[in-house]
Amino acid sequence: MGNYFNTLSLRDKLSQLAKCRFMDSSEFEDGVNALKGKKIVIVGCGAQGLNQGLNMRDSGLDISYALRDAAIAEKRASFVNASENGFTVGTYQELIPTADLVLNLTPDKQHTNVVNTVMPLMKQGATLSYSHGFNIVEEGMEIREDLTVIMVAPKCPGTEVREEYKRGFGVPTLIAVHEENDPEGKGWAQAKAYAVATGGDRAGVLASSFIAEVKSDLMGEQTILCGLLQTGSILCFDKMIEKGIDAGYASKLIQYGWETITEGLKYGGITNMMDRLSNPAKIKAFELSEELKDIMRPLFQKHMDDIIEGRFSAGMMADWANDDKDLLGWRAETAETAFEKTPASDVEISEQEYYDNGVLMVAMVRAGVELAFEAMTESGIIDASAYYESLHETPLIANTIARKKLYEMNSVISDTAEYGCYLFDHACKPLLADFMKKIDTDVIGKTYAADNGEGVDNARLIEVNAALRNHPVEKVGEFLRASMTAMKPIV
Ligand SMILES: NC(=O)C1=CN([C@@H]2O[C@H](COP(=O)(O)OP(=O)(O)OC[C@H]3O[C@@H](n4cnc5c(N)ncnc54)[C@H](OP(=O)(O)O)[C@@H]3O)[C@@H](O)[C@H]2O)C=CC1
Ligand SMILES: CC[C@](O)(C(C)=O)C(=O)O
Ligand SMILES: [Mg+2]
Ligand SMILES: [Mg+2]
What pTM, to 2 d.p., does this model score? Predict the structure, then answer.
């Protein structure tokens, strides 16, 4: 076993990275039929395991959970979650040999161990599925030749997979078939049926590759989706406290602010989010975000390069081998930040006030989304996939911060995403130190008002609007959002 991606020729690497086709809704007319009546066994009942299983059962499929012996004997959370929701739970020996489809929904760190344990028990010609291809792409796991290997990767946290399904919608999903393991040619039909069962087809499905999924997923989660939201939360909160803003107000503005401003993003992209500001505030947010883009661009590019070249995965696997020392230390450190420890006050903040008093947060979101999108597309990842991993998923992660701050975000995302988030945060905070020294409450904590008495320069406003609207993330976003007709409001 070794890094599978790194064994490919440059031509194959580029071709795999570029595999991404937005599927037409007519391609899902067969619904869940390819999996109807099949025995589906999920290994692991955590963030994705439980929520995907609930959706798939509601879609008429036969779901049960195989858990390791200790989880059953000790009645761990996974056992309680599965059994209290009325699912059949059993050991690997009891359930895996009966399965037509095994969904490996355990943490990435465990995949080699889990797959090596489960594979000998799987029946001839069964299918093994992943929701993230790390094990195949970065670790080079080789799967028995008779088994089909597919991926159905929801582009969002497990909690939102369930919430969006209950709202009658779904989350964009990337599907793939591992080309080395499709002996019966049934992989795509099964992956499509699985995406329908989780509700993904209602939000948009990309037919992609294991490689494109891994490289884009890692990049999104480390930078804009989790890393920058963590850095931004800590820096904006600390600045408000330094400048004398009430701590409870500051805590609330950040905790619920990301969710509110990114709701604008979800509906109408960066253009709509920025349009929610007054014209002077929009110009200010644009200027701040341009400066942020210049400062952070090298960091975003470094993350992309480290992901593509395998340095990120090698570093994280070294931490796995070191009993997660870095991950656990960073997790404990995050719990001690002032933002995390300061409860939000019950002061009323209107939806508009989150924008007006959070100009810097809006600037950070614009800078982060555009930088992540640019770094991904420059590396050969297709724009639709880069859009899901930057703009579309940001509001879904912001929802988790609204629930219980950074603790909740880092609990519901995968351990892989959490590790990458801290890695980015640790590099980004010092990078923004000089920039933050110049920041005052006019752009975070209080309402921005241009005080030069000259009003708005029309020519500048036209220039700013054009720059925002013409960014490629806005172009692909317009197309993709048009297919999300059933999207439901949250805020
Ligand atoms: N978190 C998310 O929202 C997303 C995750 N993904 C991907 O989905 C997959 C699952 O991630 P996620 O849902 O975060 O995982 P979780 O950390 O939530 O999964 C925990 C589950 O895995 C089980 N488990 C842990 N260690 C082992 C082991 N050694 N052997 C068997 N079972 C084990 C746990 O059971 P026990 O009680 O036995 O400990 C528990 O049921 C990953 O590949 C991830 O990258 C993809 C998109 C988003
Ligand atoms: C953003 C993090 C994620 O990739 C996800 C929820 O999509 C993860 O690994 O948890
Ligand atoms: Mg993801
Ligand atoms: Mg991920």
Answer: 0.96
Question: Measured from the CA of 417, which atom of ligand 1 is nearest?
Answer: 45
What count of other Cβ atoms lies within 10 Å of the Cβ of residue 431? 14
52 alpha carbon to ligand 1 midpoint, in Å? 12
SS3 71: helix
d(CA 478, CA 394): 16
pLDDT per residue, tens digit, the chain (491 aa), is: 899 999 999 999 999 999 999 999 999 999 999 999 999 999 999 999 999 999 999 999 999 999 999 999 999 999 999 999 999 999 999 999 999 999 999 999 999 999 999 999 999 999 999 999 999 999 999 999 999 999 999 999 999 899 999 999 898 999 999 999 999 999 999 999 999 999 999 999 999 999 999 999 999 999 999 999 999 999 999 999 999 999 999 999 999 999 999 999 999 999 999 999 999 999 999 999 999 999 999 999 999 999 999 999 999 999 999 999 999 999 999 999 999 999 999 999 999 999 999 999 999 999 999 999 999 999 999 999 999 999 999 999 999 999 999 999 999 999 999 999 999 999 999 999 999 999 999 999 999 986 656 688 999 999 999 999 999 999 999 999 887 665 555 44
406-430: b (≥16 Cβ within 10 Å) or e: bebbbebbbbbbbbbbbbbbebbee
Encoded tokens for 381: 């990842």
Residue nearest ligand 2's atom 5 by CA: 156
Q: Which of 393, 30, 58, 49 is nearest to 221 (CA)?
A: 393
ipTM entry: 0.98
Q: Is 414 assigned to a binding site?
A: yes
Residues with CB under 6 A from ligand 1: 44-49, 67-68, 71, 76, 78, 105-108, 110, 113-114, 131-132, 153-154, 157-158, 412-416
